[in-house]
Automatic annotation (TrEMBL):
Protein name: Methyltransferase NSUN6 isoform X1
Domain of life of the organism encoding this protein: Eukaryota
InterPro entries recorded: MeTrfase_RsmB-F_NOP2_cat (IPR049560), MeTrfase_RsmB-F_NOP2_dom (IPR001678), PUA-like_sf (IPR015947), PUA_sf (IPR036974), RCMT (IPR023267), RsmB/NOL1/NOP2-like_CS (IPR018314), SAM-dependent_MTases_sf (IPR029063)
Taxonomic source organism: Drosophila rhopaloa (Fruit fly)
One Pfam family from the record: Methyltr_RsmB-F
Length: 438
């Protein structure tokens, strides 16, 4: 069965842009990006439910679905609010692809989600063969080349389609491709099994717990916010880390969440409504420092005076190349990749001014390029002499890469989630922890 070894099938020139320095690691990195992390992780909102009570809910769901073959649910000692679900034990063999089944074609982002255990939502379906019936079993393929015409009725023959698993049809063609102004929504195909063996449970997120990647959970633990502190989340939407910060603070103190996207802030507000410590604003964080006497409003409204915060999370806008599995990369031009370090440096400069002496700044990205990770750290240490690196613990990832201007004694304090053996099998991610000198 064909499976890609790089998310850049259509644009190989971009590959060399990804890791400019560490080129020896490029091929394994690209192959790793295409593969699915095997473990599913939920972060429990311990302000609402105990971890044991949520574990029981998960175990019941898994038992209903898989009976005797239910995968194990387990926790990790240094991330007590997280629960992990193991992959299924049985392997998916080539022989289990039934050529008699009708086919559904999905786009690559829908394909990536289903490999991580999602069902197929209507907008992700590109094609369904004619006469496919409700409840019928179907084979599901992803179109890597982006050549399948939306709404096709015939079987899509292409060397660039990959088999992902089998599912049961819940919506018919006329519902999916109705040409109306209101596109279809809801689950179109319920997955029965997939080649990654990640359990197909769909997303069980609720106010009690959130489906969240392991490094995002580690990132907030590295920040280690304490009850009663003032914390700034500079790039907060969709607010997943903001909620975690408030939970670790026991919802006591002040968490200010900024994001410059109106629509993203609008959609995160209802989720953050029930935390009394959080206030959220649509605001451009490159202008978060008050100039002169500009600030006259309450202390939770931007812009802010220098040294206003005990801890700051800069979960920066980035190229997002740590996403896994990445069946095809949405970035097609090197100039897009090159645009991120500039905004990251501008946001970082504001963060340093807003941090009080002795305060903690965590810089993170969900990408793998050195330019947006270690190079930003090297630049920051060179530019801001009142900052020093701290060990980014708890550690579930590997160390950062050394660079000519970032020696190994410093890079080992960083945390990089990647294909290295030292790293958990999860998405690509980067975390650096700084303290401002007292
Ligand atoms: C990686 S996402 C943040 C994810 C979020 N921290 C979470 O865990 O849910 C980066 C965010 O930065 C926001 N952003 C980009 N430029 C910004 C700016 N100048 N000021 C504030 N937010 C910005 C984007 O809208 C996006 O929501």
């Amino acid at each position: 069965m064909f499976y890609p070894k790089s998310p850049f099938l259509g644009s190989p020139l971009l590959e060399s842009e990804i890791l400019k320095v560490n080129t020896a690691g490029l091929a394994p990195l690209l192959e790793w990006l295409c593969l699915t992390p095997k473990v599913t992780t939920y972060r429990v909102n311990t302000l609402r439910i105990t971890v044991d009570a949520f574990r029981e809910k998960l175990e019941n769901k898994l038992a209903d679905r898989y009976g005797q073959e239910s995968p194990k649910v387990y926790g990790l000692p240094n991330l007590p609010e997280m629960l992990c679900i193991e992959p299924l034990v049985t392997k998916f063999s080539e022989a289990s692809v039934d050529p008699a089944l009708k086919e559904i074609i999905v786009d690559t982002s829908c394909g990536a989600a289903l490999l991580r255990g999602a069902h197929i939502y209507a907008p992700g379906v590109l094609a369904m063969e004619s006469n496919t019936q409700l409840q019928e079993a179907v084979s599901v393929y992803a179109d890597l080349g982006g050549k399948c015409k939306r709404g096709s009725v015939t079987r899509f023959d292409s060397p660039e389609k990959i088999f992902l698993g089998t599912g049961k049809v819940l919506m018919q063609r006329y519902q999916l491709f109705n040409n109306s102004d209101e596109p279809a929504t809801g689950v179109a195909v319920e997955m029965q099994s997939n080649i990654s063996r990640v359990p197909s449970l769909g997303d069980l997120s609720s106010e009690d717990a959130l489906l969240q990647n392991l490094p995002s959970i580690v990132c907030v633990r590295v920040l280690a916010p304490q009850p009663g502190e003032r914390v700034l989340d500079m790039c907060a939407a969709p607010g997943n880390k903001t909620g975690h910060i408030a939970e670790l603070m026991g919802d006591q103190g002040s968490v200010v969440a900024l994001d410059n996207s109106t629509s993203r802030v609008r959609s995160m507000l209802p989720k953050l409504d029930h935390y009394k410590s959080i206030t959220a604003h649509v605001f451009d964080s490159t202008k978060a420092v008050a100039v002169g006497a500009a600030h006259s409003g309450p202390a939770t409204v931007p812009p802010f005076h220098c040294a206003s915060f005990d801890r700051i999370l800069l979960d920066a806008p980035c190229s997002g190349l740590g996403n896994r599995p990445q069946l095809s990369c949405s970035i097609k031009q090197a100039k897009v990749l090159h645009s991120y370090p500039n905004i990251q440096r501008r946001l970082f400069g504001q963060a340093v001014q807003l941090l009080r002496p002795g305060g903690i700044l965590v810089y993170s990205t969900c990408t793998v390029t050195e330019a947006e990770c270690e190079c930003i750290v090297a630049w920051a240490l060179e530019k801001f002499h009142d900052l020093h690196l701290m060990d980014a613990t708890p550690r579930l990832g590997g160390p950062g890469f050394p660079l000519p201007d970032l020696d190994a004694s410093k890079s080992r304090l960083l945390q990089r989630f990647g294909p290295s053996e030292a790293s958990a099998d999860t998405v690509g991610f980067f975390i650096a922890k700084f303290q401002k000198n007292k």
